């Protein structure tokens, strides 16, 4: 049997995922991260499974893969996989929802501390020999607004406890038991935006959430508030955000994701109150290893044991 991988980080730091597959005589074929449709179709002509990182796994790719029995996302978001086409062909699509939740939450909290205390600015200016004495705001005791109280959002709540932060949450499918146990108050999105000192986004990107944070939403936020996004760039209207930063409508933002990636140039980069990183929140040695092992096990589960994958979408 054969599995194709388009994820450059699959088994990058540990060969345990490869060992799991080899034990069951499953060959691994690696493709470049951004392989085109023709290259994908050629590689999948005799493949039984695919571990997806990047690349557009569209209807044509799926329908041109006669042996394909499972599609496993090396991560969480499956916006580059045509779920309808896979469903029509009876091919299960699965992901690893828990693999990087702690890594992403750590990173988001780190961004919050960095932007609030201006750590990135102090670093740059100190290295230039300025030795600045910079005044900034505290995080401790401030109100955190979590938009999307899923796995990562809940990890943010756990971290906020250590900083004695009141937590507001907005989620279309509220987990009342978790909220009660952790002192979280569910509110409308409008109320969350108006009351929070830090707003952190942890939502999937779909037609309901695309540019959810636009000019109107940004206008509801405090002028002293910060916006964080480690989820998907398309959740934010970036032109409206650039305008809000320019006009001082919010204090700043920290973004690990952008609507178009890689974002080599961007108007937001010109804003000194925008902290930008390159979609790396989930990139820890531990998370990459966990995700790779989970992907390998799910492929084995389907191909060898004929079982339903654990996290079928």
UniProtKB/TrEMBL annotation:
Keywords for the protein's UniProt record, in alphabetical order: Amino-acid biosynthesis, NAD, Oxidoreductase
Domain D-isomer specific 2-hydroxyacid dehydrogenase catalytic: residue ranges: 14-305
A Pfam family it matches: 2-Hacid_dh
UniProt xrefs under InterPro entries: D-2-hydroxyacid_DH (IPR050857), D-isomer_2_OHA_DH_cat_dom (IPR006139), D-isomer_DH_CS (IPR029753), D-isomer_DH_CS1 (IPR029752), D-isomer_DH_NAD-bd (IPR006140), NAD(P)-bd_dom_sf (IPR036291)
GO BP term, example: amino acid biosynthetic process
GO MF annotations in UniProt: NAD binding; oxidoreductase activity, acting on the CH-OH group of donors, NAD or NADP as acceptor
Residue ranges annotated for the D-isomer specific 2-hydroxyacid dehydrogenase NAD-binding domain, each copy included: 109-281
Record family assignment: Belongs to the D-isomer specific 2-hydroxyacid dehydrogenase family.
Entry protein name: Phosphoglycerate dehydrogenase
